[in-house]
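Good morning,

Both structures are done.
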Amino acid sequence: MEKVKVFLSDSQVLFREGIHFILSGEDDFEVIGETTSNQEAFTLIESNPPNIAVLGMKDDKASGAEITRRIKRNFPSISVILTLDKKEEEQIFTAIKSGASACITKDTDPEYLLDIIRVVAQGSYPIMEELLLPALASMVIAEFEEMTAVNEQFDNLLGSLTPKETQVLTTIAAGNTIEQVAEKLDITEETIRRNLRLILNKLVSNEQARALIEAAQRSMPSILPGSVKRNGKEAEYVTKAEFNEFKDTLMERLKSFIGELA
């Protein structure tokens, strides 16, 4: 049986070596590289792509979430597991939006760690279960509400919640368990998880699209107020034609990118 190739990156050497030691005792895994820097990790992953990358969330130069977004943009088939010092809601939400398949704390039991890596290797997204937490469900609802204005500017190109998805998240946010949600909404738990997976996909897609929009804005200063020179003088606003030209170009890039994610 072909082994699952794993790459490890964490600034805490003993923790990283501990994972390496655990994986070395299993016949179905092979650690193909490791480093203390997420930036270096991406360079090494580019030259020798693994099946799974285990990255530390915290890094002085590039966070695990930032490198995860870069990996998923360039190597969609690589699954990423992010390691956290402790589970904090904001960090978990950032991990979810980055495209990570799972996030674990550094005090995770070795057997549980192996279980997580194995299910991720099979294409599962254990991180989806985090959306069953009321606080995380509330964050998701707020995220999509925040994106509404941006979405309207780009002809609803970004993903938005369906009425059913909103209903599921609202019921979870109210403090209900998955069993209670199923009973209240008269749907199966499988249907709830199917909706959560769709929500997860939209969150990741929107986060990548947001990054693309921000990058485009930075690289095209002519769209920013006060940055355009006309007749040797600085203009306060761009013209409508200039903005429409920028928007059309950006939308084509977004459509191409989101099509690759689908």
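Second structure follows.
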Amino acid sequence: MVEAFFGFKKTPFGDSPDPKQLFPSQAWNQVKARLQFLVDHRGAGLITGEVGSGKSTAARSFTAGLNPNLFKVMYLHWTPGSALDLLRQVALELDLEPAHFRGDLARQISQAIVRLNQSKKQHPLLICDEAQLLCHPALEQLPLLLNFDMDSSRYLTLLLVGQPLLRRTLSLQMHEPLRQRIAVQYHLEGLSREELDAHLAHQLKAAGVTQPLFDDTARQALYQATKGILRKVNKLALTALRLAAARKAHQVGEAILLDATTEAML
């Protein structure tokens, strides 16, 4: 209904945006620069942000552009578990049959990582999403995966992605070994008021529509309701367009936007 009414070629403001059509906000450019530095120089990185700020999208979009012949991306979307559970997941990502005991499993993973670098010339990049859910022993295990005794080579790149709680967890003394290895970090904020306008236009254009579908009052109300958090912006914008189409309104005004805010439960 929305597509036909407004003449969209595809639905705008989707949950899974095309990496090639991401709006180049200042925050996204900052994240991209840091991630590029991380893969060039290796080590560990940290990306945090509020729920819906675009952390996972940024990580997935960046890694989608890496050469699969040069990088092996291992993506763990974490749920609470033990350090052994974490190692088993890493082993599976490395196409290994996980060993039974933790020490054997850690050695198995380390050997596989070295083989990837030396034999296949492929560098592994381990991404732990929702890393604020990792238990303390699991976080304490991560520096060991980065440590290859007296060998100065960096065989593994680690990216931790999570909510602000992750930063507070890493500030604890027990996680000093991991914190010292973090070479790049960034905290994602919401879009600015000016960026929100540009994001709306960018998304509509990507969907095949160039005329503005949100008036000034609607854009201001949208920003006030979402504070520029991407997931909230996209959800509310699409809800507002659906309501406008149902009411045969060719532009979203403040009244429709406020009704959409109630329906979207923001």
